[in-house]
Amino acid sequence: MREPLTHAIAYGAAQAALEAARAEGARVCAVVVNRAGIAKVLLADDGVGPVGIETARRKAYTAAVTGMPTALFADFAASPAMAVAPVHLVDAQLLPVPGGVPITVDDGEVIGGIGVGGADGATDDRLAVEALKSIAELLA
Hints:
By secondary structure, the protein is of the alpha+beta class. 46% of the residues lie in helices and 18% in strands. It has six helices and four strands, in the order αββαααββαα. The chain has a four-stranded antiparallel sheet. The radius of gyration is 14 Å and the shape is globular.
């Protein structure tokens, strides 16, 4: 098993999300968690409220523990197959909305997740993907 997600990588991803958001006039919170969903870094820009902070954390958690982007997980959670076991009953921390992506290494192992909250779902999702791209070379 690979070493856990380092602070440098986690901080770099969160900072990249905030910078990308600022470049387009948005204010967001970016949270990076380790593979167990425990927060390593939380950066909240000026003006981001508690809802943006909590949704970012839960998106990062969801991406890390499910191993899939939260936009894809949202589709899965809404499927008829999940009617028997709604995600909030499986794990109350799961948040099936866009804005979270897993952090994986070359062999596919999930080492964490990035969550962005505070803007609309499409913007949060795009910023999380941009943050992941910003650390791609550090994950190789």
